[in-house]
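Narrative progress, year one. The postdoctoral researcher (J.K.) led the effort to move from monomer predictions toward full complexes, under supervision of the PI. The following entry was the first complex the group processed end to end, covering 566 residues in total.
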Amino acid sequence: MLNKNLILNLILIRKDKVMEDLTDVYNELIMEHSMNSYNKKKLENADYSEQGHNPNCGDEITLELKLNGDIIEDMAFLGHGCAISQASTSIMIDTLKGKKISEAKEIIKTFIDMIKREETNEENLKKLEDAIAFRNVSNMPARVKCALLAWHTMEDILKKHK
Amino acid sequence: MEQIKKDFPILNNDKIVYLDSGATTQKPTKVINEVKKFYENYNANPHRGAYTLSINATEIYENTRCKIANFINAKYKEEIIFSKNATESLNLIAYSYGMENLKKDDEIVISIMEHHSNLVPWQKVAKHTNSKLNYMYINENFEISDEEIKEKITDKTKIVAITHVSNVLGTVNNVEKIIKYAHKKGAIVVVDASQSIPHMKIDVQKQDADFLVFSGHKMLAPLGIGVLYGKKEILNKMNPFLMGGDMIEYVYEQKTTFAPLPNKFEAGTQNVEGVVGLGAAIDYIEEIGYDNIQKIEEEVVSYAIEELSKLDYLDLYLTPNKENHLGVISFNIKGVHPHDVASILDSKGVCVRSGNHCAQPLMRFLKIDSTCRASFYLYNTKEDVDKLVLALNEAYNMFKKYIK
């Protein structure tokens, strides 16, 4: 049987870890993007407009996309929700804008794998650019859905685009 | 009060501030031990065996039914039906009473503060029977006014289903008044007591509800055990909800006759450990006494309201009429999403719920997406409130320079 002190220590370590992940996640970059994003606007002449939502949390976004051939020319979003869902959407837009669709698909997969802790290779994660800031969300199970909302919505758009 | 906390192992193992009793309460050692004792000494399938062990299990199961009948002052023990939870109890009423008694143009009246469990089943009944589902709305004090009651409950109303205490606002509805008025109009009344029975004495005869439901796990009992109380004369006329073992009298190849109350509504092997745990929870509540529970809660909740009201950055969603408020406080840091607040509070060991609390129509009515909710019970202390306030200040400080 584990002794009680050991259990208590484990709990304390877990708490410290939670706090560390938290300050790491709620950093300057994420806060700015969540509260005052320049990507939060209506996109004129969008080719795709897709809604994403997490009914349990009330997070809702509408993601808009304009293509030029197979290049993502412009993106924007509207919506409301927690800081993580909103910042993740805005930072995803920064990352994917100007990329080819095939590149975008790979970045999305890498991001989802990172959050699921299936991708930890530093070299591979570099292609996420600023979106790497969400890395520690993988240690916050209650918030995984928030971070992934925009990325799954973007996946849905690209599935529709043949 | 620290003495009460000692009765709850989880609150001692991990130094958490547990403020989510509205979702589920922690369990006292007494409940945990009684469940263990049942499996170590008495486990058998009740109503089945002719051997002593099964007879003992039956006795424990049926004695707890009597205990619950006494606890809520039901006239007959067979008016107590065991279910999985309040949700299942409400579904039983919706299917076995609502579906079979409502006709086109009849009306069902519920309130805008209902939990989805006392709302979605009635939508289904309304759709199926072509009846109408009408809502009693709340005023600026988050309360249902007398005028609203009289306007919405009409001669066409056949069922009124109302929560005793709102799981979001903590508003205590005047169910006795609603019941009296509904009966005058010829409607039956269903009371959801899930959020009230942990905190206050319920007397079903005095209240005169036709049905009353609650979940055990919100009143110190294990998860997965609930109760349906119904007036005997109404339950007797109703058809069974779930079919299967132990709810029958004679089964032929093509037809079946059903057992009398209460077995008619208890198909299949029941959650006996849940029943045992619920019995122990009632014993614990009666040992402490509702008077004491109310005294403790009033002190802690009043203090919480006082302290939270001092925080200018908070929106609070509660009635100013203290006598109409109980147990839960919903709030938001202005401009910050409740999930972010709850994550930050969690990192400080403070457990609050964030989200729509299974009350989406209420959220839409209040024009908000979600709230943080701190809910209190007898084991909470003023120190818990202080820790909540400290953690809230910290959350606010993390966000304040970004809030537009």
